[in-house]
Protein 1
Amino acid sequence: MRVQLLGTGAVLSLVAVTGVLQAPAAAGAGTRAGAELPLGAPGLPETRTTTTLQPGVTLTRVVRGADAPAQPWTVEVAVPGGQSSPDPDAPPTALKDRASADELTDRLRQEGFEARAERVDTPATADFGGGTLGWRVRVGTFTARADADAERARLVAAGHTGSAVHTGWDGDARDRGPWRIDVLTVDPRLFRGSLEASYGPDLERREKTSELAAARGASAAVNGGYFVLDSRSGAPGDPAGAGVYRGRTESESVGGRPALVTDAGGRGRVVRTAWSGEVVGRDTALELDGVNRVPGLIRNCGGTADDAPTARPLHDVTCQDPDELVAFTGAFGPRTPAGEGVEAVLDARGRVAEVRSPRGGVLPAGGSSVQATGALAERLAGLARVGERLRIAQALRDERGAELGTSPSTSVVNGGPELVRDGRLHVTPAADGMVHADNPSFYYGWAHKRNPRTLAGTDAAGRTVLVTAEGRDTDALGLSLVESATVARALGLRDAVNLDGGGSTAMVAHGELLTDPSDTAGERPVGDALLILPRRD
């Protein structure tokens, strides 16, 4: 086993080699302290190496199933709607009904491919019944990816669409691994630094987790919440959910989705949040739709009743609303978004300095603005008068309706779904928009299959725990959504939430990127990150 000391001052405090190991956090309800991770068959080899990064902060690397035999590759073929499909004109997807899958399988066999149709069953969760998601079609079984890629090329030449996939990513409970998981534990009883979320210079641009950590001199960091990735969905880097940084709310929540809230001393909690806001002038108040995002584009949905196609959370979908009122602070970026509509620009004292149309431009130092589009433009223009005061008010509330008190040490990072609540598995993909009724292939790829994951939560001792699982590799399989929850509970988390994962998953310690990026381009620039900062005397 390779043991690596991380940077100056890191202290090796535990090396465990195989068998049943001590978990880095206190066990929660339904778990046993010292239990191995519930991945693969019981009794797989498992190693844990723990280092102390600073007082009150430990890093544990868990490797399970390192001796696992190599699993095969295959080619997964996109399935078009067959003649008997409910929608024969639907575009090809990973999953379809059995008749469509059988029809494609027969055609592929006639063309000389070793094709098979496989049923995909997924486990139930707290709010999703699971069962059969659909049927997939695969071709061949290969020991090397190069052979799978060659077969894929042959399929493409025959007019089909597909991708080479490693069968270890399927989520079969009988797999033997390997898995690589890193765990940061912050103990408020000993910790004298701070645990903060950071978005970098501004919200609308993305930075790598390692860059955000280096800029603040962090001892360790993990990537944070979901964010806008594509300019067609808003401003890339803008959080796609609740965001509070140094006590200031800079992004509204997505419906009632969960978030990680951290406060002084590294104390954390998982909270479902709801946001409200208004702009008030004279005797009139107008309801805000959001803060610091491009008006009309609501990433992950979960906004207001007039948003299309839904007001409910719908993950990785951008809802639209032509009539919006969005507030901006200096955190957004050098300029507010340009476009049709009206913008009331406020100085540092909250007085209207300018009303501009079209909207977009520089804000005064310490100033803010409100942008209106569509039918709301006229209403804002009537409310905003140069020299008069406008007040922007906003609040985050928990699921009981109580306002979420904030201080300069408060951070909120968006996430979803929940994974663990009160020590019990509580996975909520339906409530949080990961179940797309008309597209089971989304759940198949996002939740059912193994991917890199980032998790966060708290244990029974009040410690904040941040977890990354590497994935999309042959020597690090990743975790399905349900596996993420079982791992969180096995690590002792009483409450846990899923943060952004996939290519965004990253953990840094003492300036070193510990996770192997799954994006071919390397570490992905993200919207924000959670930073563990040393004590500043």
Protein 2
Amino acid sequence: MRVSEASVAPADATARIAALEASLARANAALAARDLLIDTLRGQIARLRRMQFGASSEKLGREIEQLELALEELETERDAPVAEAATGVAARPSPVRSLPDHLPRKEVVHEPASGACTCPDCGGALRQLGLDAHEMLDIVPVRWRVVRNVRPKYSCRVCEKIVQAPAPVSAIARCKATFATLAHVVVSKFDHHLPLYRQAGMMAAQGLDIDRSTLASWTGQAAALLDPIVSRIRDEVLKADKIHADDTPVPVLDPGRGKTATGRLWVYAVDDRASGGTAPRATWYRFTPDRTAAHPLAHLAGFRGFLQADAYAGYDGLYRGGVTEVACWAHFRRKVFDLHERVPTPLTTDILERIGALYAVEAEVRGRPPDERHRARQERSRSMVEALRGVLDTALRHLSPRSDMAKAIAYGTKRWPALSRLLGDGRLEIDNNIAERALRGIAIGRRNWLFAGSRAGGERAAAIYTVIQTCKANGIDPQAYITDVIGKVADDWPASRWGELMPWNWMPPADQPTAQAA
């Protein structure tokens, strides 16, 4: 008996549809699993970053790097174009974002292959109706060039006087580098975390043979030219009413012992944007070979305002000398959060939710004037803080003093007056994130370079960080700024006009393209 083709075709079609549906289901399941893994990795990285910038752990830093690499590969795989026919799933489109206005534009006009004058169908004349345009991000690789300074020499036919333009100023006598080159080397090392030996290798790949010691000399000269700027940034920080302070360990090469010692890099930051302030934003760094209390006492000698910082005991001498302590709610929250991640309990959940409610109020009044912030805190936050203190006191009466939870709570209750201080002054912040953000670049890049065996290398790095981070805080490109300013300083810029060179006042030259800080 013959089976008709009409009866076979529907069966084949049904089988093919079922196979395609199964393939689609597997592909969707794989995509869902990958997206879940991406979200999980993002959560782990965020958690480790909170831990890293609180505890400054090198081990955590390495773990974050590995997770970042894994996340990068997964996101690349997710967004890579694949054949739709092979998977049955359309490729995910990339997010559409407008490109920054400050970038230079190169216009490429694509005319029809048949020309812009004659219709390819009938031969009639064409007229323009409009145009379609889209922008793509392009890059011009770093290309080294030689600037040849030529100074013609003239002689007067009458008196034989010799006339010639003066030699252009340079940072170093007989130096072969322009100010732009010095700025590039400095920013590459301290902002992009490229050590000098790696920069020398990148130059060698382009046929440019410059050894690391020459790059080190250029870095030192650039830092010396920036010294007047650093001094004025320090003065601006110290005259503020409120300073955010923090510190982080940095490696210091000790050739005498053949070991790597641990120094400290301190940051003192001023940024009142959250309270609607328009004062200059400044970030001042200092290097010390250790973490003794004498250092912050010396750095902030004469300061009598508010100091927002962590619970480091080295600041106590400042508080006894007239400085007002403002504690950090993020540090207190972190103590509880670490326990909550290990073993969530109703108590940890309650405390974190109450602190989260305080942060919600702060988010609403961020950028408002101090009086509005103060009013909102009095009307809404004060009752929350008082209720939270009641919860903490009750918990302490039922917990063993030696338990981790009791220690985390005691961290907050011992500093309660300093934690509550923001309620009485709208200028104050709920946490010390301004200073912690200023140290994140150091935490990322400190494994890429070592200081010299003396204090000079550390102090030089602190000075350069002071300029770079203050530029970023004021939204200007550090490399463009350093290029222009060290040239003006080397050319004996008048002392009466130093204010024009400060990052919060600086304007790029007319012939220099503008860019925003990263």
